[in-house]
Structures are given as C-alpha cells and as structure tokens.
Amino acid sequence: MKISIVYFSLSGRTKLLAQSLADVLKPEGFTVKVAPLKTPDTGSFLKNCIFAFIKKKVKFEYVPDIKTSEIVFLGSPVWAFDITPAMRTFLENVDLKGKGVFLFITYGSGKGKDRAMDNFRYLVEQKGGKVIGTAEIKGRSVKDEFEKFKEEVKKCLKQSQLIRPHGQ
Questions:
Q1: Domains of the chain, with CATH numbers?
Q2: Start-to-end Cα distance in the chain
Q3: Would you say 113 and 105 are in contact if contact means Cβ atoms under 8 Å apart?
Q4: Phi-psi region for residue 95, left (φ > 0), alpha (ψ -120 to 50) or beta?
Q5: pTM for this predicted structure
Q6: In sequence order, what DSSP letters do the residues of the chain get, joined into one string?
Q7: Contact of 125 with 92, CB cutoff 8 Å
C-alpha cells in the first residue's frame, strides 16, 4: 500500500515527526513517500503568522503528487490558530477523494490547536478525504511525544479498514 506524508515545517519539528513516521511505516511493509511543502520565500515566523491569519495563498517550488497514494498523512504547525498557509494552499488544490487521511499538528502554546485541527479536518473533508486519525504534538517536546504519536498511528493502522500492510 502506498502512503504519502506531506508536511510543512519552518522550525524542523514537524519535519522530524514526518521523517520519524516514515521510519515507523516502512518496516511494516508500506511504500512511503515523504514530501515536504517548499515555498520559495519562507520568511519570518511573524510574517507567516500574519499570512496564516489572513489565509494567504502561497506558491510552491513543486507540488507533491499524491494521486497514487491510498493513505495520506498531512502535517502542519499551528500558526495564528490555524494550519500554515502552505498546507491550506495545498489542500485547496488537491483531490483527496477515496483517500484515508491522518492529520498531525505541532503547536507551541496550545491555544490555537483545537481550532487549527477543526479547520484541518474541515478542509480535508471538503476535498473528499476521510479523516482516519489525528494527533496533536506539543512542538517543544516533539522527541518526548513521539512514542505517544507512534502508538496513536499504530492504533489507527490496526483499526482502519483502509490500511493493510503488504502480506496481510
């Protein structure tokens, strides 16, 4: 089964989760593609928070192709009570019909994480995706929280009828 992990990361925390997630999935027999959302101008954190608040669209250096993936993991930091402009723009331009989607966010203070996850879920469902799991990871403790995240992913894999590794 093909899985894509698409994420945006400015500080590197969401990237660490995405790459670690791939390391967990590959030994289980999945074909995994990790695809960062790269924008030509990442700018400062403050500038990006303003862009998140006004829901500014961004341009990509390239757009990850997820057409052949049956499952898509999407990861974004929380900025200004929402997902990043890069993830929002990606979701507005992708077809998720028939795909199982696992959402994960990293956050700092926690004040915007619930709203961000609600918006994330809404955008995925608007594009035809079925949310099969979610995880919220406090950004400064990504390494400490990874074991909990990994267990949540494994639980989701076992419970979901959409996900079956090769050989099962």
A1: 2-159 (3.40.50.360)
A2: 11
A3: yes
A4: beta
A5: 0.84
A6: -EEEEEE--SSSHHHHHHHHHHHHHGGGT-EEEEEE---S----HHHHHHHHHTT-----S-----TT-SEEEEEEEEETTEE-HHHHHHHHT---TT-EEEEEEEESSSSSHHHHHHHHHHHHHHTT-EEEEEEEEEGGGHHHHHHHHHHHHHHHHHH-SS---TT-
A7: no
Give 35's Cβ-side CA count (13 Å radius).
21
Phi-psi region of 166 (alpha: psi -120 to 50; beta: other; left: phi over 0): beta
Single-letter residue type at 161: Q
Angle between helices 113-126 and 85-92 in degrees, nearest 10: 20
Q: What is the pLDDT of residues 23-37, one digit of tens each?
A: 888 888 899 999 999
> Which two structure tokens, joined as six digits, stand for 20?
């670690």
- The residues, any chain, with a CB within 8 Å of residue 167's CB and separated by 6 or more, are 29
d(C-alpha 49, C-alpha 148), whole Å: 28
The residues, any chain, with a CB within 8 Å of residue 55's CB and separated by 6 or more, are 82, 85, 88
Residue 123: HSE in the Cβ half-sphere, 13 Å Cα cutoff: 22
Tens of pLDDT along 39-97?
866 666 666 666 666 677 777 677 889 999 999 999 999 988 899 889 999 999 999 99
